[in-house]
Amino acid sequence: MRKALKQYNFDWMLWRTYEAGSRLSAGTKQEYDIALRYIPNFRDPVKEVFKAKAGQLFLQMTATYLDNIVNAHQRGKKTCMTTFCFSPAILYALDIVPVTLELLTVMMTFLYKRGTGEFLDYCNEAGFTETSCSSQRGSMGALLADIGTPIDMVVTDSPGVCDTNANAFAFFAAYKDLPFFQLNMPPWLVEERVTEYHVQDYKALIGFLEEQSGKKLDVDRLREILTELQRQDELINELEQYLSYKPLPLPVTTCLFIYAGRFMFAGMPIYTQLLEMLVNEGRENVTLLKQGINISHEKSRGFFCYIDHYTHSLRLWQMLEELNIGYSGNILSHFWADSNPPVVHNNWKEAAYSIKTGTLEEMLTSISAINSRMPMIKSIRGPYDSPYMWLQDTLALASMYKADFIVYNGTPGCRNTWGMVKLLAQDTEKAGFPTHIMYADAFDDRVQSWDATRDRFEEFLRVRRLL
Amino acid sequence: MFEELYTIARSINNEYIIKAKEQGALCIGYTCSYFPEEILHALGIIPYRIKGLNVSSLSIADAAFGPFICSHPKCLLQHFALGDYSFLDGIIVTPGCDSMRRIDECIRKTAVNLDLPVVPPFFFHYAVPHKITEYSVKWLVEELHRFIDSVSAHFGLPFSYEKLKESIAFYNKMRKRIEELNALRMHYPARITGADAVAVYVAGLSMPRDRFYSMMESLLSEYTGTDLEDRKRVMLIGSANDDIDFIKTVEGETAVVVADTLCYGPRLEVDYVDEEDEPLHALALRYLNHSHCPRMYGGYKQRLAKVVEAIRTAQVEGVVLQNIRFCDLHGAENGLIERDLEKMGIPCLRLEREYGPLADNERMRMRIDAFLERLEVRRLVCERP
Amino acid sequence: MIVAGCDIGSLTTKVVLFDGKKIIASSIIKSKPKPEDGAYEALQQACAIATVNQDNIVYCVGTGYGRKRVPFANNTISEISCHTKGAFYLYPNVRTIIDIGGQDCKVISLNTHGEVDRFVTNDKCAAGTGRFLEVMAKVLKIELQELSNMAKKGNEAITLASACTVWAQADVIKYLNEGISKENIALGVCKSMAKRVGVLVNQASIKRDVCITGGVAKNSAVVKELENLLGVTIVKITNVDPQLTGALGAALFAYQKAGGK
């Protein structure tokens, strides 16, 4: 790794950048316009985020997330490296600071033209395999090279769902000789013994977290967080209703804010605030019959059945707007509460979670169910055509959100989806949804340049007459 | 005897299975070493560890699997699609790794897409946990119950715990024989090549076990050993391998693989099933603990300790760490093992390879030769005054 | 006594004749579809230069991917060992060798005795090998030898998808169509090559002094980019064509095996 990169911690650098970015709209418009001139490399992502009224709050929230990480030890807190598909609610309940690899990777790929290339490469130098998913490697490389906040423990819930994800965390823990805990997911969702297994596993997790943090789980704190989550679910439900409207009354970045916020701050008031802002904007636009998305008219609507593309400047979202494509979400923006519109619409209560805040046992059952319904954890765990798995979810969501086509985008490291995405695409095509498989890497432009990715996407739209 | 074992190991079907089936025997294939064969044996079913050898094209497999997938499950799928496994009455798919667990839907959907009757009549997804805890062992015992109920009902076979105990005892006896074979490998000087040993293991996974046991007994009583004194003693670690020719590539003319952790074989220790314990519990414990597989996340230190112990016992001079491209589990753990063994002064070679029709033995040959030359120099250095 | 080293690579076949004190002749030819023919031709050329008869050669070691197809070889030794031997002979202070050949890239770490300590190689991919540069030169419609000079005239390198030669090729075509100068594209190609090799070097852990061998060592633009990336000066072997290092090492081994000291 270049010496220059080792001069300062990468998470500190990100924190200062996002912190500065979040203040950009604090002044007058003139001051904002002038400031943009001085940040040629950050101008585009800033402009894209600020298209949404909640954009400034989103940047602030991101800065807060990074502040928590960078200053965790000074504040007497432990840091826990974890994955985006593990709900951080329990960590907040135990006053542990989550360090979510995929989020850090995206925070960097959004802003920096070079992305996380050098950190990805450093993983190779450390002996890690280069075929593993870039979402973890992008920031893991920096942490392996000790240019980030030291990590106290490692937790993942992807065993049984995503090997390459779980493997990255296991590697890091072994490399640094850190305490490690895995929540292990059976290939099914709704059986009683599966629920029992989830709860036992989750209790063991809490035991681990208590031991590592030296703190005991505060029942009232947990109740507070679950109550906040209930409120957040209500807001997300309303947003999901709006996402099925035509025209879309919400900005194109709405789903990104929903899931990124949830991965960062599930159960915390700052995320509720963000959702409330999004809901208010949606309500306002619905009342005024106004489009929230910045396009002349929606030519067609896409559903991303997996993840988005996270390279520089939120280019994916820019492209969708330029092409007049409506965006109706992806696998990451759904959390499967029992009140959630797709759950209610399809009568899928047995596959959803409900939040009960009465006894400790009820709360533990609820939080383990919330975790086991996290994106990917719910639907990528078993054969894709099994009940409540990926195919069923994709078709239901694409229908409900009135998608005209489906897009798969992932990374070459995604073993479990590349193991059957062609089969999924066959089924979604049969169901009447033109389906495009992107061969790009959502976190690494070096695999397939953005230009080539965009060319192919546009070709798909043209050939399938979606424009 | 070795010739016959080589033939069985290198082919998909064999005369023993054909004969047994003609006499009404059932045969069920499984994808992963986690599955306890004893259960099938107790039901009178021949267990068969599915192999991917001798595939010349992946044209069908590539239509189902994406490009970024390990070639081993692709070869398995190609075989199924071509009907090479039509002799199987059932298949047990285990989530050994993501690529392998997708074999489930890939076989089913390929059969539908190509309108081929290639899905075995009995199809079972056997969920093995990724860790060892009281509740994960309990889960696995429940899975075994579920399997027994399912297979008994499907084939109308009564299951008996007495028969299971007998099968466990029989398998332990077989493990004793395998242990004797392993001792020949680890002996100084080695008395059997790694290729020969692997031929025995793989053949053993491909034929009726009672017959295999008799062959093992004869082999061990008749075998006089072979002179491998000058060969460099190498350990092989990494991705699944049923291909004897790969072992031959590693050994060449100047090395011998004295120990390995590969899953088409006993790995470093045979690990007996506790015959005093409740049988399903004993099987669940043994098979979960026997794993030397990075799919058991968080178990690196214990695996490394076993490797180091085996290096000392078998007087290993160098370790070859191989993974099939896109095998992230071994691809990553090999990096840790290399780091830690090199720190201890044990030379390592990391190899990334292909499996099946894309296997590139020449490219590997060069790297292995260079590594063996390094070991040769180490021997000379040790002799330096 | 005269010995020979014959290195059959994917792109070129090389022979070095050595008399115990110095290289008396060498040859580099394009590899033939039948390696044996290439080996004979290279040997004949070298013998003609040295005005010796092939029968005068007492021992030959074959190396390279085609080492087992050298019909006159008495022994074969891996190119890793041969490159190490050759580089150490030419520059005894070397402790890291970067060998970028036609179809692979190797980084070798040596100890003070000139013995291989560790080595890492690229796996399966043309990116980071001479093949990558060959493909790109073809797209730019220039000879491979012109690539370095063209790159040196560039002032703003384009970014290539460096992970895959096929995608990088598509990118180059796109840039050409957009009117980007060939010089800047060539510079981007060399930078991309250096990045890929740099990852491998860092995996092997760099120890000074570092030298580069193999055909790509002649591309000074790639070498310069590597130096910038790794933060070290790379020793260029100037007294011998760097492509001959492997064959020289093989000849040195041949001399040892023939009883020479």
Task: Write out key terms for the chains shown.
heterotrimer, B: 385 residues, alpha/beta, Rossmann fold, four-stranded parallel beta sheet, 8 strands, globular, C: 261 residues, Nucleotidyltransferase, domain 5, five-stranded mixed beta sheet, 21% strand
CATH level-1 class of the domain at 220-463 in chain A = Alpha Beta
Number of strands of chain A: 8
Topology pattern of chain C, helix = H, strand = E: EEEHEEHEEEHHHHEHEH
Query: Helical element count of chain C?
Result: 8
Share of helical residues of chain C: 25-40%
Q: First CA to last CA of chain C: what distance?
A: 12 Å
- Assembly annotation: heterotrimer
Give me the CATH superfamily of the largest domain in chain C.
Answer: ATPase, nucleotide binding domain
CATH class of the largest domain in chain C: Alpha Beta
Query: Largest interface: which pair?
Result: A-B, 51 and 49 residues
Strand order of the largest sheet of chain A: 2-1-3-4
Strand content of chain A: 5-15%
Q: Structural class of chain C, please?
A: alpha/beta
Description:
The complex is a heterotrimer of chains A (467), B (385) and C (261). Chain A has 467 residues and is α/β, with parallel strands linked by helices. Chain A is 51% helix and 7% strand. Chain A has 20 helices and eight strands. In chain A, strands 2-1-3-4 form a four-stranded parallel beta sheet, sandwiched between helices. A four-stranded parallel beta sheet of chain A has the order 6-5-7-8, sandwiched between helices. In chain A, α9 links the parallel β3 (153-156) and β4. Chain B is an alpha/beta fold and 385 residues long. Chain B has helices spanning 2-10, 15-22, 37-42, 61-64, 71-81, 98-101, 103-113, 134-155, 161-186, 194-204, 209-222, 244-251, 279-290, 300-313, 328-343, 361-383, and strands at 26-30, 45-49, 90-93, 122-125, 232-238, 255-260, 318-324, 348-353. Chain B has a four-stranded parallel beta sheet with strand order 2-1-3-4, with helices on both faces. In chain B, strands 6-5-7-8 form a four-stranded parallel beta sheet, with helices on both faces. Chain C is of the alpha/beta class and 261 residues long. Helix content of chain C is 40%, strand content 21%. Chain C is built from eight helices and ten strands. In chain C, the strands form two sheets. Chain C has a five-stranded mixed beta sheet with strand order 3-2-1-4-5. Chains in contact: A-B, A-C, B-C. At the A-B interface, α9, β4, α10, α18 and α19 of A face α6, α7, α8 and α15 of B.
